[in-house]
Amino acid sequence: MYLMVCLAAVWPFSAQGGQSQSEKPCSISIQDLTQIRGLEDTALVDVRNASDYQIYQVPGSINIKLHELKAKTFLKNKRLVLVGYGYDSEKLLEACKALKSFGFQSVRVLDNGIAGWAITKDQSIDSPHIIQSVFYINPADIAHIENTSRILVIDLTGKNSNPLNNYFEHITTITAPNNDAAKTLSKIQTSNNQQYGYVIVVDEDGQGYPSLYSLNHSNNKIPVMFLSGGISGLQDFEAQKTAMTNKKEFTLQNLKGCEN
Predict the structure, then answer these.
(1) Mean pLDDT, all residues of the chain
(2) Residue 253 confidence (pLDDT)
(3) CB atoms < 10 A from the CB of 97, how many?
(4) Count of other CB atoms within 10 angstroms of residue 225
(5) Class assignment of domain 2-116?
(6) Banded pLDDT at 189 (limits 50, 70, 90)
(7) According to the model, what pLDDT value does residue 121 have?
(8) Region 95-114: what's the mean pLDDT?
(9) What dihedral do alpha carbons 16, 17, 21, 22 form, nearest 10°?
């Protein structure tokens, strides 16, 4: 009886009735996930790319690409929990609604994704490969974040003008010697105010992050992500994107000229 009461509190909707999925947020906390993880009717689906999944994953999860999920009929009667990177939460929340229209009866998205799981459940991570697969975000992925309102960017470059302004609404600059980790953590904690879901730290070239990784295990309750390659990596990405756009426009103009 006690187990049934606990599960009802964690997952308040079911195929048989009661509160529907549409009446509750389509997310689940890590604390609540631990109560249902491993149960026969629960399936943890990690939708990250295969290489990152192989490096680190929530124990018991399976790796399926998001666009392939709708065809996995064997999961339709499961309590489905989607695990992403964390910064892709908005996309997964939309997928949660879409999967219901394909016949999935119970779908949730893990709060803060794999990064949130790692800082809550696995504080012994020290492998550079794991840290990079879990806590690093590529410039190309930044361009696809659908909602940046819950992201706090800590800019360590000291530059007044940089590409960060093209992608984020909440940016705070720290001009501390040697990217002082203590000052960075203090800024994160005072700025969070329950408003942000996670933090992205940006330095000049991505070389300073190893000394800042401890921010994820310093009484900080939200994941701290690091921009791969720093501001230089983001500038390179933008230059490549511009070059590709110009090439496409040049090709299209030539094709139109051939039609005349």
Answers:
(1) 81
(2) 60
(3) 12
(4) 25
(5) alpha beta
(6) low
(7) 87
(8) 91
(9) 140
The CATH number given to 138-238 is: 3.40.250.10
Residues shown for the chain: 260
Among 74, 80, 76, residue whose Cα is nearest residue 61: 80
Both tokens of residue 132?
A: 């990079």
3-state SS string for 21-39? HHHCCCEECHHHHHHHCCC
Q: Token digits for 100?
A: 């219901």
Q: Do domains 2-116 and 138-238 have the same CATH topology?
A: yes
CB 59 within 8 A of CB 86: no
Q: Domain-by-domain residue ranges, the chain?
A: 2-116, 138-238
pLDDT digits (tens, 9 = 90+) for 32-70: 999 888 888 999 999 999 999 999 999 999 999 999 999
pTM as predicted:
0.79
- As a whole number of angstroms, the distance between CA 212 and CA 187 comes to 13
What type of residue sits at position 34? Answer: T
If you search the block for the tokens 């939200």, which residue do you land on?
A: 222
